Each structure stands twice: as structure tokens, then as C-alpha cells.
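Recall that a protein's primary structure is simply its ordered list of amino acids. Everything else, from secondary elements to tertiary packing, is in principle encoded there. The following example makes that idea concrete.
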Amino acid sequence: MTAAAKASRFASVSTGRETGSGRRWEVDDPFRRGVLTVARATSRAELAWLRATSASLEAEAG
């Protein structure tokens, strides 16, 4: 397993409340919704950085 795959596995965290069979998030409080929006954006940015860093390190290692 590559470092990027490991990072992706450990960084995926579910937040919110799932409803039904799909992944529809139900959050009534606008402040909680804001926190979840920021958390999702942070997770995406962190994963992008981890993947780029991992690819760079793997390329250097040969």
C-alpha cells in the first residue's frame, strides 16, 4: 500500500448524520453546518497535500 493510500485511509472521517441509504447529510444548525463545511475543505486540502508529498517522496526514492 502506498503512503498516499495509507494517508487517505486514515484521513477519511465521517462527520454529520447519515440518513436513509444514501450519503445525504442532515444538519439543522447553521453553525454546525459551517464547521462541517470547513472540516470537509480542510480534509480535502490535507489529502491533496499528502498525495503530492507522497508522490514526490516516492519519485525521489526511485
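Residues 3 and 58 are 9 Å apart (CA to CA). The longest strand covers residues 18-19.
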